[in-house]
Amino acid sequence: MAEWWATLSVAMKVLWGVTLAASLIFIIQSVLTFIGADADSTGLDGGGFDSADMGGGMDAADGSDATVSGGSNLYTFRNLINFLLGFGWSVILLRDSIKPTAVLIFVAALVGLGLVAAVMYMFRLLSKMQQSGTINVYTQAVGCQGSTYLKIPGNRAGEGKVQITINGAVREYDAQTEGDTIPTGTPIKVVEVINESTLLVETLASEII
User: Fold this and answer.
1) What is the dihedral of CA 13, 16, 17, 18, to 10 degrees?
2) Longest dimension (CA), the chain
3) What pLDDT was estimated at residue 56?
4) Which pTM does this prediction carry?
5) How many CB atoms lie within 10 A of CB 170?
6) Residue 149: per-residue pLDDT
7) pLDDT for the residue numbered 66
8) Which residues contact 30 (CB under 8 A, 6 or more apart)?
9) What is the mean pLDDT of residues 7-17?
């Protein structure tokens, strides 16, 4: 082992160190996530996780608002680890097969980004599953109020995003409107549920006529 290590270049030694460290942190994060103590929510990303990035929190069994994090926000510590994990192991495993360094780095970067995207997608699905298990959007969303998170094009010309409060929990949904374009930050009210992830909304001001 010592002889093998001595034959490595400084760059490969650094890469091995970073990759092994990323692998260990990835394992710890995965364990903490599935026992309900997600590392991102404890500050490892230097700022925690905003439930709005995931589409809201999950109502816990005791009625409190728990949040499932895990890298749905692009700039998190978890996503950095995922990228380093994919990048590092790709370079290590493919360096004998792909000789041009530039090509190797490019391929490894693609693998790292792919792993980040896959984990983000997995947690987004997990969030939707948790939401569907605690909130019946078809029966509970109509009449709820909130605000526009991303501008909603008028006349159902496209979708924006809104944040509404259901059962005391803030949730994020895609949204359309039949009226004029609704700017970001405008108070809104849900008038219809289009599907489990998309709402039809109107501005609250429209009621004051």
Assistant:
1) 120
2) 82
3) 40
4) 0.46
5) 15
6) 84
7) 38
8) none
9) 88
